[in-house]
Each structure stands twice: as structure tokens, then as C-alpha cells.
Amino acid sequence: MTIEQRPDGILHIVADGQLTTEEYVDFVPRFERLADQPRPVLIELGPGFTGWTLGALWRDLQFDVEHRKQFGRIAIVGDKEWEKWGTEASAPLFPAEMRFFEKAGASDAEAWLHNAPREERP
Prior knowledge:
The chain is of the alpha/beta class.
């Protein structure tokens, strides 16, 4: 799992393969350094993304609850129906608006993040 802050202020997270607890040990401090204020987030699920190990799923849920106020709008880009369902199921955990976009609509996801209301922008 990688994370970077782009020049436009969007936090770009890429997840591929199966996420493990060890990845969160590295990811969480990097996220905390970059998310000093609520920022729009683009989460790109790679073609090999298969989800989480059980321990990583628990860690992800903890992370979501602990950091939910550090997210502006959240755009999730993927290509599987279960990823869309997962986005819809986890949306109530976040005060920020969250949407799923098909990979073919990745530019729509970025446009949506850029058109966030002023209070959601970095």
C-alpha cells in the first residue's frame, strides 16, 4: 500500500494484492504525517487487490474510526462489484462524502474530488 500527497492536495493511496497488518504498521504513520488537516482522498484499488487478511481488516476498521475526521471527500476507484459494495457499506463510518468510481471513470473521480465544497478543500 502506498500513499503520497499530490501537488493538488489530494492524498493518493494505492492498494494492491492482499493487505496485511504489517502494511498498516508502515502506512499509518505516513498517513498521519500527510493528513495534518482534512484532505480529499483518492483510493485506487489495483487489479490484483483481493482485500485484507483478517488481522488487517480489523486494523483497517480501527484506522477508519480513529482517523475518520482527517478525510475530505473520498473517491475509491476499482473494477470489481464487491469493491463498490464495500465502499457503500463503509460510507457511514465517515463524516465525509464517499463514492465509488469504475476504473474507466478515474478522471470523473478526480474531477469530483476537485469540485468539493470549499470547506472540504485543503
